[in-house]
Write a sequence for this structure.
């Protein structure tokens, strides 16, 4: 009985103690949560959270085929806290050795009073690694984004470049900076007692967010050919500079836009004189490349036909107080021949027929006097006097491209409108913009700005321009095998800055044309400033046009219009015996042909062939219009 | 008879009181024990879930860093690839083997078979 009571008492005491403890625990929990909760939460947040700022990242710039033209990498930058540098001369000497800079320069940085001094930003990986290995007191590293242009000078002026803070300074980098550059993201991350970060949902994604990807209309391969050909011509003719622009005639998209001397955006700091994209910024008197526009205007107004005879005054003609000359003493020429032989006197007579108001109206309709609207910064609109200030002389000189100034892009765009049947398009260089999630936020669409001439007039002018590259025309060197070329030369006198008069030594040599002439795909303008040796557009610029055009046809997979190689059968001395060839469709024989020849024969006859092996065709087994051809080495 | 009844009551009553008292004593302890057990279980679950969330957080940070490192590596490789595919470099390399870009006439494009 007493034992039971004792147990009961103990149980009650224990229960009471536990109950009291429980109540105390609850009271403490309530105190922490309800009374001190806010203060403690703030203190905890200060301990557990840290602010992280993401690096500004730049999206890639691609060409029309998705090839990267500009890429950003995260690299090291090195800075110093001078107060923590132990031995300034020794530290400066060690750093200078790695960076290959004068030690005195580094030492002056390390002696500054500031607690933060940049030593060098955006180091290449091996240099950063070498510096790290030195393990110098007071020298620290931080990560920054650096822009690389893997193709060097290809499209340098068009792409532009960025500063050390990843801000676009020129070209596409500047014009589309808002899209390409991601804004730095500031997010709060949790951390543990050791300072390790703990991810919380989308914050990590926000930190990783990159800039938008910009895809251009340019083709790296065509642009490279344009740059290379232009650079070689500039060097050969010792020209001051040169430009070339290639445009898709159907859409107005720019396939290449190059300036010589070239700019390598990786090293823009040492090439600041080359930064300007002359295709859109520079204006000059184009010369005879406007004659097709004059002819088009006169044809459109039905003032003449291409066969209308015009007397070209045997090479000399006086307008007011000016004597206008032709390079040759032309007598009577048709309107088509005036363009083909580039007669200034014939042109001014066509201009006179047209009258200044109409000619001014057509020039404006072809885009002269106002920017083309291309999506690039710094475009000039050219220079053209108001028509009420045009006199007899300006009407005459403007008929052969003098007295009015335009950009190379305006000239190319006007020629494009003749190539595409009379549509004046807005040129553009950005095809689409894709955000960091892969969603398209912008897609370019061709834009017709006007219709200066009808399709039939454009067709008639195209026929005339084909004759310019004939053997007796002004630009036979513009021809390329397999394709009919159409175009117009320009050899314009420049104004001598010293005298204010037209120079007899300084010229601008151009060729503006399109290919294939009957179904144009691209329009190309090439222009060289102050060439030496030869000054004529047909000699200096036309060969560059031909090289670019050939590459463009190859790159755009435009099949040749004309036979390119000698007839295949004539090239084969003696067909080899080939019994199985009997199954080939009638008139087709593969025996003894090389693979290229066999492919040509097949292509011409609409036969599909499956080649096996290499060498000379030995046997063929055909089923209908499909043949398997076996090649063996000789 | 009545004494017997009184005794019976006298004997029976304390017994019932004792039984009720014991039952009450155990039920308080039982409730307290149950409460503690529940409290402990909830507490343990809470701690376990917090630890699990923490571990997942560490994993996520590690994975994020790895992803970014891989992206960076991809960008570096892309840069390297584009440098290798630079047309000028390719042409120089091809020239060493006596190769050059084909002229327009050397490219034969096949049409669809009829």
């Amino acid at each position: 009985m007493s034992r039971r009571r004792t147990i009961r008492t103990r149980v009650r005491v224990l229960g009471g103690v536990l109950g009291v403890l429980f109540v105390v625990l609850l009271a403490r929990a309530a105190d922490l949560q309800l009374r001190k909760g806010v203060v403690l939460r703030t203190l905890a947040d200060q301990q557990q959270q840290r602010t992280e700022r993401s690096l500004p990242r730049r999206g890639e710039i691609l060409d029309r085929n998705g090839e990267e033209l500009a890429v950003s990498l995260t690299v090291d930058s090195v800075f110093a806290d001078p107060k923590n540098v132990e031995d300034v001369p020794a530290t400066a000497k060690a750093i200078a050795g790695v960076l290959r800079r004068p030690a005195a320069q580094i030492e002056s940085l390390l002696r500054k009073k500031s607690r933060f001094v940049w030593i060098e930003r955006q180091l290449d990986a091996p240099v950063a690694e070498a510096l790290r290995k030195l393990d110098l007191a007071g020298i620290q590293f931080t990560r920054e984004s650096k822009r690389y242009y893997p193709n060097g000078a290809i499209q340098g002026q068009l792409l532009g470049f960025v500063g050390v803070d990843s801000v676009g300074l020129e070209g596409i980098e500047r014009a589309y900076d808002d899209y390409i550059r991601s804004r730095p993201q500031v997010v709060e991350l949790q951390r543990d007692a050791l300072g390790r970060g703990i991810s919380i949902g989308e914050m990590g994604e926000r930190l990783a967010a990159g800039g938008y990807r910009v895809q251009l209309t340019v083709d790296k391969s065509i642009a490279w050919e344009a740059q290379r050909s232009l650079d070689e011509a500039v060097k050969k003719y010792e020209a001051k500079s040169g430009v070339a622009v290639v445009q898709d005639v159907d859409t107005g998209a720019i396939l290449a836009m190059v300036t010589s001397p070239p700019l390598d955006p990786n090293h823009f700091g040492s090439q600041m004189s080359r930064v300007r994209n002359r295709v859109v910024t520079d204006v000059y008197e184009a010369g005879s490349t406007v004659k097709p526009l004059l002819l088009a205007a006169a044809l459109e107004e039905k003032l003449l036909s291409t066969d209308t005879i015009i007397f070209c005054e045997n090479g000399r003609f006086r307008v007011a107080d000016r004597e206008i000359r032709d390079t040759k003493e032309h007598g009577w020429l048709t309107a088509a021949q005036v363009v083909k032989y580039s007669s200034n006197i014939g042109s001014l007579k066509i201009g006179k027929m047209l009258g200044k108001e109409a000619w001014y109206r057509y020039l404006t309709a072809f885009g002269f006097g106002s920017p083309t609207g291309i999506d690039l910064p710094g475009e000039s609109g050219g220079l053209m006097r108001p028509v009420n200030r045009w006199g007899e002389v300006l009407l005459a000189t403007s008929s052969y491209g003098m007295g009015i100034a335009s950009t190379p892009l305006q000239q190319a765009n006007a020629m494009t409108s003749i190539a595409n049947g009379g549509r004046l398009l807005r040129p553009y260089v950005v095809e689409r913009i894709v955000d960091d999630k892969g969603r398209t936020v912008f897609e370019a669409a061709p834009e017709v700005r006007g219709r200066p001439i009808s399709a039939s007039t454009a067709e008639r002018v195209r026929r005339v321009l084909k004759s310019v590259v004939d053997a007796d025309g002004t630009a036979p060197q513009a021809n390329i095998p397999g394709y009919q070329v159409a175009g117009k030369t320009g050899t314009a006198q420049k104004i001598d800055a010293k005298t204010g008069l037209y120079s007899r030594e300084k010229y601008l040599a151009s060729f503006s044309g399109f290919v294939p002439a009957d179904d144009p795909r691209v329009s190309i303008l090439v222009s060289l400033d102050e060439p030496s040796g030869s000054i004529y557009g047909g000699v200096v610029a036309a060969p560059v046009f031909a090289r670019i055009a050939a590459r463009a046809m190859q790159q755009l997979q435009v099949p040749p219009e004309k036979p390119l190689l000698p007839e295949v059968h004539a090239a084969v001395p003696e067909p080899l015996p080939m019994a199985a060839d009997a199954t080939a469709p009638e008139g087709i024989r593969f025996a003894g042909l090389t693979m290229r020849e066999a492919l040509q024969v097949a292509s011409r006859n609409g036969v599909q062939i499956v080649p096996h092996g290499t060498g000379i065709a030995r046997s063929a087994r055909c089923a209908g219009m499909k043949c398997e051809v076996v090649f063996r080495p000789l | 008879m009545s004494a017997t009844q009184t005794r019976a009551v006298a004997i029976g009553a304390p017994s019932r009181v004792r039984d009720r008292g014991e039952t009450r004593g155990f039920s308080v302890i039982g409730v307290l024990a149950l409460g503690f057990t529940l409290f402990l279980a909830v507490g343990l679950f809470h701690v376990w879930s917090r630890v699990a969330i923490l571990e997942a957080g560490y994993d996520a940070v590690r994975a994020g860093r790895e992803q970014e490192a891989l992206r960076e590596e991809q960008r570096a490789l892309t840069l390297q690839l584009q440098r290798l595919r630079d047309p000028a470099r390719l042409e120089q390399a091809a020239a060493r083997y006596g190769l050059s870009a084909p002229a327009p006439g050397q490219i034969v494009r096949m049409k669809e078979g009829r």
Chain A touches chain B through 59 residues (CB under 8 Å). The CA atoms of residues 290 and 439 of chain A lie 43 Å apart. Chain A has a mean pLDDT of 88. The first strand of chain A starts at residue 49 and ends at 53.
